[in-house]
């Protein structure tokens, strides 16, 4: 069957507003829009201006009204505890209404921010939807971030209320959340008034009198009282959530997501991009703390009337490399979305696919990979083992949905390994040189998107229009800068090669090397430092730190390295995965003082490199090569 992609993309190009108006018919609006796209609103314009809606209504209530009350909405499967729990749409609504009532009693109102700092338990999803119901703005903070990262987000989002849990579960270790939460609240300048805490049986915690409330107690009270909270109408352009993502400094960027455009884009993507029908079971094996979790664990599948799977565990070791196949078989999953790292981990433990052969995967149709570059080797291995399409797709926290992919819902296009395929409707993707000129096909350059961005993409950064403009729009006027470098080939296929900023991608987790450098510089023995991302077979990239020690330091370096690694775990969190620090005498710099990180990375990755013409002292690169060799690197 030939793909409808080219016709659909051309339809969008001919009449973008007509295209999105048609897609918007799949959403229930309390009031229709005055202007489909208001180019004078916001920083670069806003979608569905004047419309009123509620995301929770569209994700939950309307399915209860229109015949899906008894269909499973959410399946919680914890490979960590062996728990499996299914919530129908009617049950999901009960949970969300009761929690919305609790939050309302705690003072949460439309427009208020609520931070959700939780492990992968159903209450995290209920909390997101309860905020949406009240028109409050949630900000989910990934559980692998430490207290200081949480504190930074508290100070930026200024929530009165935080929803959290007593602990998270990592293989071989229980992560006590409460000390991190208390530490963050203590550290933050903004005062958090109330916390609602889920007590997990694996590790309870003390509640602070007058501030903390017990989730289960509060919910039971509201349920007994038969509490009802209607969905609060919000403007389509009002924020649904803020999701902080790494920027070029330790100060994360608060990506804002609106209500209306977000619903339209996600609902459209489920059928047309992912090829999923309402009623089917969709599983994104990510974490609610990341954008993939927001879009494809919670909002898109629920908006589409699917059953979504919330999985607590890892692709390997919980208990083995067969876990994903067990979940797919047991819950009739038709499509799995995960990061390539997960597949590299599975392949390492089960190279011949023996676990795969043990499971009935007859309902399973498609594997989607995103979050980092999918290496052709991994894709080919997955294709061979599964004998099904493996779809690489490229997007960012900022866009909330795929920018490019093989549009399996519209009909699959030929696969080119190493390419996340073609741009999706809404995205006019171009490659420009540093001066802003379009480059010929096949030439590497800055990947940009012509403005306006489509519905669902970030309209701005939280309370930071100017930072938004300067970060994304200023460098290439009329375009959004993705900060990815790539190529468009003669068939219009995209190849995303690397970031153009200091962001690295570790196991599908987006991290700022600049943020890590700020932590390294805090260590009293460190005079200067640099952090780069080096290639890693399993995690795609790993951070590697370089430090120049203060002249007077006489302690053993091993000890200092351990302290620095620990400092990064404490400040940023274990997810930063910084394990190695190399001590060097000097940092290589240009004559104007810029650290030559790209050259250091090439040396560490044993790639060909040229002596930069602007280098201050070429000998330093030799010193670095020797220092790396001494550590078994480079
Ligand atoms: N709470 C607390 N700690 C967490 C955490 C969380 N939610 N998530 C990860 N961590 C910790 C891990 O325990 C680990 O700690 P350690 O250094 O003490 O071992 C550290 O952060 C690094 O975690 P991770 O990068 O996930 O590595 P891992 O070795 O635990 O697991 C994989 C390796 C491949 C199994 C894992 O990286 C994986 O599943 N990757 C898929 C990534 C993904 O889903 N990305 C989302 C984008 S789609
Ligand atoms: P995040 O905001 O965490 O989703 O990370 C976005 C970044 O991850 C992008 O800017 C890319 O650098 C990288 N990325 C995501 N998906 C892909 C992909 N399919 N191929 C290559 N890089 C990707």
Map the helices and strands.
Layout: H1 5-14, H2 16-24, E1 35-38, E2 46-49, E3 52-53, H3 55-65, E4 72-78, E5 84-88, H4 89-105, E6 113-117, H5 122-134, E7 137-140, H6 147-157, E8 161-165, E9 167-170, E10 173-176, H7 177-187, E11 194-198, E12 212-214, H8 215-224, E13 234-235, E14 239-245, E15 253-258, H9 260-272, E16 281-284, H10 291-303, E17 307-312, H11 323-331, E18 333-338, H12 340-349, H13 354-357, E19 366-369, H14 376-386, E20 390-394, E21 404-405, E22 422-423, E23 429-432, E24 445-450, H15 465-473, E25 479-488, E26 494-499, E27 503-506, E28 509-512, H16 513-520, E29 526-536, E30 540-549, H17 557-571, E31 581-583, H18 597-604, H19 619-630
Helix pairs in contact: 1-2, 3-4, 3-5, 3-10, 4-5, 4-8, 6-7, 9-10, 12-14, 18-19
This protein binds coenzyme A and adenosine monophosphate (AMP).
The site of coenzyme A has 24 residues, from strand 9 and helix 12.
Brief summary:
The protein is built from 19 helices and 31 strands. The protein is α/β, with parallel strands linked by helices.
Write out key terms for the chains shown.
GMP Synthetase, Chain A, domain 3, globular, binds adenosine monophosphate, 19 helices, Rossmann fold, alpha/beta, five-stranded parallel β-sheet, 634 residues, binds coenzyme A, nine-stranded mixed β-sheet
